[in-house]
Amino acid sequence: MAKDSSKVWSVFSLLAALGAAALAKKGLDGGWKIATGKRPPENPADPDVDVWEAVAWAAVSGTFIGLARMFAQRRAASYYVRSTGHLPPPMRKPNQQA
Known about the structure:
Blueprint: H1 2-36, H2 51-84
Helix pairs in contact: 1-2
């Protein structure tokens, strides 16, 4: 049962994280365009992209997408707890039982 529960959580968590990352990327692209008047760099590693623009994009996008994924996984974990009555297997403390 714990193995099935772990698989369900893995899929549920992955879908929440991917959805959050996609939404965050869409919002970031629009926000970058409003803030800078330019499209975000497609490849910040490209030498034709100004280094400071690449650094700013990497910092902003990494932070924003990471936060979006974390909040989505927290919401998914809350839903999981409401549905099952316990935390998902990877989030349980070693001595905690389902």
